[in-house]
Amino acid sequence: xxxxxxxxxxxxxxxxxxxxxxxxxxxxxxxxxxxxxxxxxxxxxxxxxxxxxxxxxxxxxxxxxxxxxxxxxxxxxxxxxxxxxxxxxxxxxxxxxxxxxxxxxxxxxxxxxxxxxxxxxxxxxx
Length: 126
What we know:
The protein is mainly α. The protein has helices spanning 2-27, 33-36, 41-50, 58-61, 92-100, 113-124; strands spanning 68-75, 78-84. It has six helices and two strands; from the N terminus they run ααααββαα. The chain has a two-stranded antiparallel sheet with strand order 1-2.
C-alpha cells in the first residue's frame, strides 16, 4: 500500500511539472490573452456591461451607455430629476475615475483594470 501511495505521489509531482512547463510556454508567447480565449475583449466587455457583479450597467446607462432618465421625485415641494449620464464619450482615465468615485449614487463594482478596459472598449465602439 505504501508503494502505491509513493508512486501516486511521484506521478502527481510529474504531472505538476509537465503542466507548469506547458503553462510557462503559453505565457511566453506574444499572443494576447483574448486571442486565445473563447470570446473577444469587446464580447467580454458586453458581458460585464450587462451584469457586472450582479448589478447591470444598462439599468441606469441604457443598452449602449448613452444615458437615460432614472427617476423624478418631489422633495419639500421641489421636483428633482436624476439622470444617468452618457458614458460613451468618456476617455479611459475619466471612465476609470468615475468607477472609483466613492461619494456618488453609482454602485461600487470592484472591477479589475482589465474588466474596466473591456467595458470601456465595448461602450465606446458601439
